[in-house]
Specification:
single chain; 129 residues; alpha+beta; four-stranded mixed beta sheet; 5 helices; 36% helix; 18% strand
Length: 129
């Protein structure tokens, strides 16, 4: 089951629509549940609203914060969640740290929503020669 995999994850990024049975559908309650399972980092995305993050810290019970996505003229959100997850994983692999990785992922996902389709935005970021 997916719940068995969660404690093996370093970071779990979920949309605000995710909440397990018996947990209130509030980001802070979902984060508390995931942190309680032993997940060290939690991110909750909320579309154009702030992405929220929590991180277990050996010195303190947890750190937390919010990242405001850039305001863009949204054309199409298809694939924006997948883009967010990919950008988050890439930023974490580059050792950005969770707050910086969430900011990067918000920026990239917002850019992806400015064009129609799931890949047209890439032309703006890295034009083909």
């Amino acid at each position: 089951a997916a719940a068995d995999l969660l404690p093996r994850c370093d970071v779990v990024a979920a949309s605000a629509r995710f909440y397990p049975p018996g947990v209130l559908p509030r980001p802070e309650d979902v984060a508390a549940w995931l942190l309680g399972l032993g997940v060290p980092g939690v991110v909750v995305t909320r579309g154009g609203e702030d992405a929220l993050w929590w991180q277990a810290d050996g010195m303190a019970p947890q750190c937390r914060g919010a990242v405001r996505p850039p305001e863009v003229a949204v054309v199409d959100t298809l694939g924006a969640g997948d883009v967010f997850h990919g950008a988050l994983a890439h930023a974490l692999a580059r050792h950005q740290g969770l707050p910086g990785a969430v900011a990067t992922a918000c920026d990239v996902a917002a850019a992806s929503a400015t064009t129609l389709g799931t890949r047209a935005w890439l032309e703006r970021v890295a034009p083909q020669a």
